[in-house]
């Protein structure tokens, strides 16, 4: 592989917003539209950011991750949305059926493969599919707003096209259970998830004891964060666990899922991060890709249900970091974008800056362990499970 002319690439097609469960569903496609509007108006989508379209993948590509029977079920309800299949997660409150559901999901998978292809072939150093990150979908079942698991499909494409070791890091507030399950026994894929504990949040999995099966022991890494964890605690946990393990794994490429439902204003979760903390996490992932994977970084979207005030700002920061030109937190949001947000709200106000005004300082794990802290006990539980498998010391 050789370095290409484009340092970064945004994979986007207007048809991607067709992944739409309806007006009352939390996963509103307007969040993607507002992100692209904000990024454009702030000048993020400049000459240093190539644009690429997407094509839907065929059934054979979907079948590298999903069962034939499940793909047939998705096709059937796409043609007849009134025919629900709750036995495979289709037609539930989380995953209502809609016309062209199969095509919409296959297009998102195609966009994630294109992002992976651009990076793996050297056409781009970084690539982003902000519509991707549907990490809950299982081989034979829809789950948690996710029909096809574009993340796993893109990782499978990388493995089939020469990648020997892929590291996947998931910072969504919900455990990346689908991706973990698909690669649980595959030592070529490291799955790392930092999420609110399953004791208080869907899908109820992702405990420290889930470490990978058989020869893949140590390649599933889970940090189950206490509800209420804010920027300082989240960053403490990330830096105490993720970089040491990824360094030892020595990936060829980094694939990340940037769900921003960890925000304090998100209506579906109980974490308390700010846009500033989320921005810091994106910078940390960029730096980790530079250090461990020669800069090769495929970034995907994910959850995020404060769709007007939070998601567009968080993901515009992500896009700017992917493009190589981070936006300063104090940057003003453009008046035209604010007007659009207010109109969608039917009144009120819109964020005036790209910051929540929070500090991203945190206490390093090397500064000491506090056994009275739920957060520190969580961090140590993960380190105790995983670190010895890599020859690392779990204690500070």
TrEMBL record:
Histone deacetylase domain: from which residue to which, for each copy?
Answer: 25-320
Q: Which InterPro entries match?
A: AcuC, HDACs, His_deacetylse_dom, His_deacetylse_dom_sf, Ureohydrolase_dom_sf
SUPFAM superfamilies recorded for this chain?
Arginase/deacetylase
Q: In which pathway does it act?
A: Ketone degradation; acetoin degradation
Query: What molecular functions are annotated in GO for this chain?
Result: histone deacetylase activity
Keyword tRNA-binding: yes or no? no
Keywords attached to this Swiss-Prot or TrEMBL record, sorted alphabetically, are: Acetoin catabolism
A Gene Ontology BP annotation from the UniProt entry: acetoin catabolic process
Q: Does the keyword Lipoprotein apply?
A: no
Instruction: Write down the superkingdom of origin.
Output: Bacteria
Describe the family membership recorded for this protein in Swiss-Prot or TrEMBL: Belongs to the histone deacetylase family.
Q: What name does this protein carry? A: Acetoin utilization protein AcuC
């Amino acid at each position: 592989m050789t370095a290409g002319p484009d340092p970064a690439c945004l994979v986007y097609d207007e048809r991607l917003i067709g992944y739409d469960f309806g007006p009352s569903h939390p996963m509103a496609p307007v969040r993607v539209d507002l992100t692209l509007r904000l990024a454009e108006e702030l000048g993020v989508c400049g000459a240093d950011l190539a644009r690429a379209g997407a094509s839907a993948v065929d059934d054979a590509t979907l079948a590298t991750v999903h069962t034939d029977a499940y793909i047939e079920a998705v096709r059937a309800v796409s043609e007849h949305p009134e025919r629900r299949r709750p036995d495979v997660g289709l037609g539930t409150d989380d995953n209502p059926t809609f016309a062209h559901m199969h095509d919409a999901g296959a297009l998102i998978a195609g966009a994630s493969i294109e992002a992976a292809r651009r990076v793996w072939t050297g056409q781009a150093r970084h690539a982003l599919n902000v519509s991707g990150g549907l990490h809950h979908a299982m081989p034979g079942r829809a789950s948690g707003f996710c029909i096809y698991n574009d993340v796993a499909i893109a990782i499978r494409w990388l493995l089939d096209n020469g990648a020997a070791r892929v590291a996947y890091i998931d910072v969504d507030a919900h455990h990346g259970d689908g991706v973990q399950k698909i690669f649980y026994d595959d030592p070529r894929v490291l799955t790392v998830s930092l999420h609110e504990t399953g004791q208080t949040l869907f899908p109820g999995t992702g405990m420290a004891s889930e470490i990978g099966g058989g020869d893949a022991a140590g390649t599933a890494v889970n940090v189950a964060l206490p509800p209420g964890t804010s920027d300082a605690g989240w960053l403490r946990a990330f830096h105490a666990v993720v970089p040491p393990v990824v360094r030892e794994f020595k990936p060829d490429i980094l694939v990340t899922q940037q769900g921003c439902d960890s925000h304090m204003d998100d209506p579906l979760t109980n974490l308390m991060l700010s846009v500033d903390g989320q921005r810091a996490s994106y910078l940390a992932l960029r730096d980790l890709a530079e250090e461990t994977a020669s800069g090769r970084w495929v970034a995907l979207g994910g959850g995020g249900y404060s769709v007007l005030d939070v998601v567009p700002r968080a993901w515009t920061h992500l896009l700017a970091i992917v493009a190589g030109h981070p936006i300063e937190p104090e940057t003003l949001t453009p008046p035209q974008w604010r007007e659009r947000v207010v109109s969608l709200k039917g009144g009120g106000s819109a964020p005036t800056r790209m910051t929540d005004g929070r500090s991203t300082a945190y206490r390093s794990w090397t500064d000491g362990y506090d056994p009275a802290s739920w957060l520190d006990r969580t961090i140590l539980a993960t380190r105790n499970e995983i670190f010895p498998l890599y020859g690392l010391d779990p204690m500070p």
